[in-house]
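Lab notebook: predicted structure, single chain.

Context: the supervisor wants predicted structures on file for every construct in the current expression panel, including those that have not yet been purified. This is the next one on the list. No modifications to the sequence; it matches the entry in the shared construct table.
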Amino acid sequence: MWQELLALEIKSGRVLRVSVPDGRVSTFLPDAGPAPDGIVVEDGTVYWTTMGEPKIDEATPGEAGLDFSARNGSVHAVNLDGGGRRDLVPLGAMTTGKQLASDGRGRLYWGDREGHRVSSVRVDGTGLTDLVVNPADEGIMGECVGVAVDPAHGHLYWTQKGPAKGGVGRILRAGLDIPAGQTAENRSDIEVLWDGLPEPIDLHVDGDRLYWTDRGAPPTGNTLNRAPLPAAGERGEAPEILADGFQEAIGLAVDGEAGVAYVSDLGGNLRAVPLPDGPVAEQAPREIVSVGSLTGLAGVGAPAR
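Prediction complete. Output recorded below exactly as produced.
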């Protein structure tokens, strides 16, 4: 059962440490880099991605005026005690780092949004490889955002959210290994499991279910969702909405042991959502804290000192 969460604050570039029981907030890392987005904690190490510095169009307000197409995203690591910071994927080796996931076997996976791909690297920084590469001419429809891995079944899941509030978001699946004789650009094992979603973002596999956040338009957007993992060749069932009313829902971390999902949003809210079939007595979502604009989340079993 997690006692703390590490949460990424996108505008300040900080990694925040948040106490689950009482919402106390401190700074774990003051300078994670420009626009941090995905984070994983594993074996005493914190891994995270950055989107990089955007080109800003002053004439276009909000996110629409931020151009992240420059190849300046990255992946980094630091020990939970704050030491041993290092670059796994340095600036210039990727475009826009989004959600980060681990297979628990020494490899990390992430969505590279403007890079139109899902990529992977070993936790020591070697073996950088692309697993999915979508054609550049697909534009925003080919951008990959959220990722999750299911090593037990050998599957990789990812989201392609489409345009903001567009209602054409998709969740896809492929093998963790590219089929023999194929490439990341032409692999034949990609399945579209869900489409027509408002705007799916981050993913998490827990047991036989897939969880995801959606920052699209209500009533089915700005929600936390889950659905059973589809069998091979099957489409996904209509998702169960576990919570709604978020302000641009992004980050997701599911503590299966505690029966709680944690969701962060760009409005700065961090909420605990008890799962309907979990052991937690409280039934309603609980706001843990409200801070700056939040992206990725990761749970920590013991306080990160």
